[in-house]
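Lecture 7, part 2: worked example. A protein chain together with iron/sulfur cluster.
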Amino acid sequence: MDKYSDEDLLMLSGIQHIAFCERQWALIHLEQQWAENVLTIEGQFLHERADDPFEDEKKGDAIIWRALQLVSYNLGLTGKTDVVELVKAPGTDADSIEIKEKKGRWKLIPVEYKHGKPKSDHCDEVQLCAQAMCLEEMHKTNIREGFIYYEAIRHRTRVDFSQTLRKQVEFFAKRMHDIYETGITPPSDFKPHCRSCSLKDLCLPNSMTDKFSVNEYLKNALDYNF
Ligand code: SF4
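Predicted complex, written out as structure tokens:
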């Protein structure tokens, strides 16, 4: 049975924010504050390109879906993909689907576009995996991998949708709902990653002495019991 209904759905894109910092997520999604820095502006430009309806809809043998609407009633999230590539699959492949007016079976492969280069944390991977979990629920299939295209290196990296990553997605989706329910923005607490945060001038985090990192934060998510 679904855990959430339409009225409960939160923005999927917020999962990258909460994976980075709970306070950042709350400032953006509870308090609707947003400060554009160079990183977010470059990111928007890339997303506009990914959403461009005039781009080719075929890439070799693959079919390209752009800006596909997503929903998961298990995670309580809604949003859209940058790109989903549909790749021909052997008829025996259980992780494939049929598509109306297309012959054969197809595997779904989500692709997300990011500015910059791969980061040391896993926030981007968490977001892509959340998209995959929405697609799985919507199309009743399994998706084992996706890709993140990084503009700075003009290369895409493969993301394995492991159980560990899926557990992090479930954890962060639940944290979004828990915090949303309370309506209370967590207090500021300066961490090393605050330096690249687009909200640092609004957040005004305090001392820079704490050694806590995003990776430690993500790792702590694995200890969460559902
Ligand atoms: S400045 Fe630091 S504490 Fe404040 S929202 Fe950004 S990451 Fe979170």
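The longest strand covers residues 105-114. Residues 21, 23-24, 27, 188-189, 191, 193-194, 197, 199-200, 203, 205 surround iron/sulfur cluster (CB under 6 Å). Keep this in mind for problem set question 3.
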